[in-house]
Specification:
The chain is mainly beta. It has helices at residues 2-24, 75-79; strands at 34-39, 42-47, 52-59, 65-67, 87-89, 95-96, 100-103, 106-109, 118-119, 132-137, 141-148, 159-168, 172-181, 186-187, 191-193, 210-213, 217-219, 232-233, 245-246, 259-263, 273-279, 285-291, 295-299, 307-308, 314-315, 322-326, 341-342, 348-358. The strands form 8 sheets. It has a 9-stranded antiparallel beta sheet, with no helix packed on it. The active site is at residues 193, 324.
């Protein structure tokens, strides 16, 4: 009887420890799973770790399907990932100079996870937390939800965040990112960090892809990729993609490759603006992108160095391209950039729309 009572005591203590762990860190008790959306020949998979898009299957001009996003076979691999493959990044995407900013007369210090700067929200940004799944209809949409606490990675205030991926028709994928501050003004700038290769994730580099960017200006950066505060024309420079051309045609003129914020043409408002068109000649695949954000980061995976991904594919430099619609980088420290500060009672809304075709 004594042994039985001892065993019950041990079990009770163990349950108490688990409950306390859940109370202190809710993510301990969340399960990490994978989810799928499918309609017609378009199929997309996700995990609630980082709200990551793990794969996207598309047919080519002959109907052959390929996975066109870079990623890993297991969720555990995403936990050790430094590339942000397919993740939702935040609370503030891109870089914050000196890992600090001032808001309403108060200085806030964020996590310096890239030298002395903050990148994509800090060492444990939204890409490295477990999201809950609020709703999932496999033929329609999935909504992930996360509560960002006051002081998380140095950012002020509690914020509720929702990310919804939805299929529209048989060849469109929409993404809606929403956030609401609950008690303090705070900067919010979320981004989708998917690496695209329209020839297939394991097909080599994207230098022969053609791209058109609907952006006449960029925000130039210093050697640490921090914006100088200037806004300059792309005309006549290697950054000029106003007409479609191969990504690799002038990439050798840049140190490392493309990693720059483009100022999307048109007036920022509720309406979506065409942002980019990417095409791949061998497969005939084309991807068009619209967004309601002021900027888009064009990145050619310059820092990939033999990363082992899905199916043991080895992703090297230029293996994928990112088109991260966003607010301007380091806007918290540049008053001439569009503000990303959102106050209680206001809402943050970021919409992306992808259309896929093959001819």
């Amino acid at each position: 009887m004594a042994n039985k009572q001892l065993s019950l005591h041990v079990v009770g203590q163990t349950l108490l420890v688990l409950l306390l762990s859940c109370f202190v860190n809710y993510s301990v008790c969340k399960q990490i799973k994978t989810y799928k959306l499918t309609r017609g020949k378009l199929s997309v998979t996700f995990t609630n770790y980082g709200a990551v898009m793990t794969s996207l299957l598309l047919p080519d001009r002959h109907g052959k399907q390929d996975d066109v996003v870079l990623g890993f076979d297991t969720v555990d691999a995403y936990k050790n990932d430094t590339t942000y493959f397919g993740a939702i990044v935040g609370r503030v995407a891109n870089r914050i100079e000196g890992a600090k900013f001032e808001l309403d007369g108060q200085l806030y210090k964020t996590d310096p996870n890239e030298g002395h700067n903050t990148l994509h929200g800090g060492a444990k940004g939204f890409s490295d937390v477990i999201w809950s799944v609020e709703n999932h209809v496999p033929t329609s949409h999935i909504t992930f939800k996360y509560h960002s606490f006051d002081g998380e990675e140095g950012f002020p205030g509690n914020v509720t965040v929702k990310v919804t991926y939805m299929l529209i028709g048989e060849n469109k994928l929409a993404l809606k990112m929403e956030a609401k501050p609950l008690d303090k003004p705070t900067p919010i700038d979320l981004a989708l960090h998917t690496y695209w290769n329209l020839h297939g994730h394991n097909s080599g580099d994207i230098l022969s892809h053609k791209i058109k960017l609907f952006a006449k200006k960029i925000t130039p950066v210093d050697k640490e990729l921090i914006p100088t505060g200037d806004i300059t024309s792309v005309e006549g420079t290697p950054y000029d993609f106003l007409e479609p051309r191969e990504i690799g045609s002038r990439i050798h003129e840049l140190p490392g490759g493309y990693d720059i914020n483009y100022v999307i043409d048109g007036i920022v408002g509720k309406h979506l603006r065409k942002t980019a068109v990417v095409s791949e000649e061998v497969t005939g695949r084309k991807m068009e992108l619209w967004s309601n954000q002021p900027g888009v980061q064009f990145y050619t995976s310059n820092l990939l160095t033999s990363v082992v991904g899905k199916g043991n594919a080895v992703y090297k430099k230029y293996a994928g391209l990112c088109l991260e619609t966003q607010g301007f980088p380091d806007s918290v420290n540049h008053k001439n950039f569009p503000s990303q500060i959102v106050s209680p009672g206001e809402s943050y809304l970021h919409v992306m729309l992808f259309r896929f075709t093959a001819h």
